[in-house]
Write a structure and sequence with these properties.
There is one protein chain. By secondary structure, this protein is an alpha/beta fold. Helices cover 42% and strands 20% of the residues. It has 9 helices and 7 strands, in the order βαβαββαβααβαααβα. A 7-stranded mixed beta sheet has the order 3-2-1-4-5-7-6, sandwiched between helices. Helix 1 links the parallel strand 1 and strand 2.
Length: 260
């Protein structure tokens, strides 16, 4: 289940991609299939080991084209272990709402992104997320849980403040909003067989939808995404720095002489 729409966020074969806070690796796997040179990074070592296993299985099965590479590694989003301007593309999906220093994370992403590179940021949408917070304190008052709810203008403003230039937005996963409302209403800690019947029934519907991708639910979700889409997705570029004029050094020297 992808949150980033790769028809709006195209990848070229050979692009260097950082999936920051990759979790179970869903976007990293898709980038690998598209021929990218992928680094999937997360602070959760257990998840990273699973992602590495899946990368190896994909390579063995021939799911990635020739030239594509994939690396899974542990790391800190606030102190990325890469030189400046390393990546053509950065993806951070459903992560920033967990991190107290979200401005610091944005600054690190911009640092490792090449000028002209692209970034995709996804966070829970304000309206559906606010319903979850209202229905259940346990939904967000847990270690590592959601610590803020972004309004669209707020997130875009922070991206601009970090030096990015947003170029598109949309919403995703409308069918998932009712599922989380049900979980919050009946108990977010009740999973599997312990979950309430409405939660189990809706979960079966979502699994069926993900596996079968029937036209009816695809159309329904497209129509509902603008209204109750669970995620807000923003795309941006890192502008190229303005070129220095040929007489700039001379002017600087003149200024220095004047000050002397």
């Amino acid at each position: 289940m992808l949150t980033v729409d790769f028809t709006r966020f195209p990848l070229a074969a050979g692009d260097r991609v950082l999936d920051l806070g990759c979790g179970a690796g869903r976007h990293a796997f898709e980038c690998y299939r598209r021929g990218a040179q992928v680094v999937a990074l997360d602070q959760n070592g257990e998840e990273i080991r699973e992602v590495a296993k899946w990368f190896a299985a994909m390579k063995e099965a021939g799911e990635a084209p020739e030239g594509a590479t994939a690396t899974a590694m542990e790391g800190d989003a606030l102190n990325l272990p890469f030189p400046d301007e390393t990546f053509d593309v950065v993806i951070i999906s459903e992560v920033m709402e967990h991190i107290p220093d979200d401005k610091g994370v944005l600054a690190e992403m911009v640092r490792v992104l090449k000028p002209g590179g692209r970034i995709a940021v996804t966070v829970p949408r304000y309206g559906p997320e606010k319903v979850c917070w209202t229905l259940s304190d346990a939904y967000h008052e847990v270690e590592g849980g959601h610590i803020r709810i972004y309004k669209a203008d707020e997130l875009l403003g922070r991206m601009r403040g970090a030096g990015l230039k947003p170029y598109g937005t949309h919403h995703a996963h409308a069918l998932h909003s009712p599922y989380w409302w049900l979980k919050c209403a009946f108990g977010v800690g009740r999973d599997g067989k312990d979950a309430a019947l409405p939660v189990r029934a809706y979960h079966k519907l979502l699994v069926w939808d993900i596996m079968k991708k029937p036209m009816a639910t695809r159309v329904a979700e497209q129509l509902l995404n603008p209204v109750v889409g669970k995620s807000f997705v923003a795309y941006a570029t890192k502008p190229h720095l303005p070129a220095m004029t040929t007489d700039a050094p001379a002017k600087a020297d003149d200024s220095a002489k004047a000050e002397a």
